[in-house]
Records
---
Amino acid sequence: MHKRLSAHCRKSTTTQLQEVPILFSLLTMIAYVFIGTGIFCAWEEWDLVTGAYFCFITLTTIGFGDIVPDVYLGQLYSFFLFNSLVVLW
């Protein structure tokens, strides 16, 4: 019985890779930066460059820590921005 169970487990652990077009990936990243820039400019009262810089640094998971949202909604959105990217990846 152990051999049958072991063979069943090996068969069920196969993974299939799903190809994603590079254009879709790039457009998604650009949309994240533009949408996030607008949101952080409104909530945190940052200028466009600071908002875009923060979104890009957060999206690429570099995270220098030099710019941090002060408003709770900004903190919540940056958490969503990072975690949704991880799910999409």
---
Amino acid sequence: MYQKIADASAPKELSTLLIPVKGSHLILPNVTIAEIISRVQVAGVDDVPNWFVGFIQWRKREVPIVLFEAINDQPFAAAQNQQKHIAIVNGGNAKTPFWGLLTEATPRSIRLTKDQIIASKAVIAGPAELQRVSANETAAIIPDLNYIEDKIVALMAELKAQTG
């Protein structure tokens, strides 16, 4: 059994973003997201997994873009022109300092207390999910950023090997 440890320095609220994806929302701490940008032209790449949309130029960097539903092994619409924004994620890996997620609408910021985020009994639907939760009465998914980044790093290495 786990015992709760009180930490007087812990914040009372956490600033988060609800990022709309097909049929749900991803929830991430604000500090995880570098920027939300309007959808821009994505440079596609041939012979890649369906979850990899391509690259965009952002702040003089080539940033890989993924579709969460596909990387999570969920059904998705092939037409990606419905996505309105790209959430630029601060990567946790030196090989992918930034990467992007396509969103279905404008993400919204919410502040949550520990009592406003509750683990859901809903079954995790795919490998890119850590937990399903209710965040201030909104169903949301905590994505497995390590899983997503590992997939991106592996694909980038594969693409680099192909181009020599």
